[in-house]
Write a sequence for this structure.
């Protein structure tokens, strides 16, 4: 699809020109985040703003750490929990953060970490494709434009869990205290906003 090709090229260019991290910086961020996370109660995250004290590159999780949170939630729901601190560290070490985290995470490079974690997934390039493939109990880790006509407003990643035939639960979509509910994937994502998704089985 032309749209997917444009997205991939754009993210690759931004990733190439943006600055990255040194090893000593990564260790420093890791220690800080580990100490902060030690005071949190384990569980699913539905509002990343509660994690604003945790560092995400040159910014914080509350600001641009949505893809890390989505992956954290996916692992939690799969019964394979992993500390958010470790996920952030792994994303950072694999050069997945864009512009040192200030522009979030490159969704096309998430596959590297998902492979490393042993997740079984399939890349999904459109809402229509997702609708034909997702089944009850499966999850879609999706990245969307915050406003599809205004790309400078950035992107957002979150997790969608399907239950039954038409119940979709969104974790950290709009920063609520509980997962949000939708009756369809299009309702859960919105028209014109889709970038890429990963169907996790």
């Amino acid at each position: 699809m032309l749209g997917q090709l444009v997205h991939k090229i754009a993210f690759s260019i931004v990733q190439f020109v943006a600055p990255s991290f040194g090893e000593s910086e990564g260790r420093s961020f890791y220690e800080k985040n580990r100490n902060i996370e030690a005071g949190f109660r384990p569980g699913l995250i539905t509002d990343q703003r509660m994690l604003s004290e945790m560092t995400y590159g040159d910014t914080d999780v509350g600001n641009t750490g949505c893809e890390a949170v989505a992956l954290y939630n996916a692992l939690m729901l799969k019964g394979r929990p992993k500390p958010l601190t470790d996920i952030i560290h792994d994303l950072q070490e694999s050069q997945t953060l864009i512009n040192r985290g200030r522009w979030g995470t490159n969704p096309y490079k998430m596959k590297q970490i998902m492979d490393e974690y042993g997740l079984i997934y399939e890349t999904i390039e459109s809402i229509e494709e997702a609708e034909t493939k997702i089944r009850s109990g499966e999850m879609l880790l999706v990245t969307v434009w915050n406003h599809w006509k205004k790309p400078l407003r950035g992107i957002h990643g979150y997790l969608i869990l399907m239950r039954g035939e038409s119940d979709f639960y969104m974790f950290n979509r709009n920063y609520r205290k509980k997962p949000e509910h939708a009756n369809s994937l299009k309702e859960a994502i919105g028209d014109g906003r889709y970038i890429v998704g990963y169907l996790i089985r």
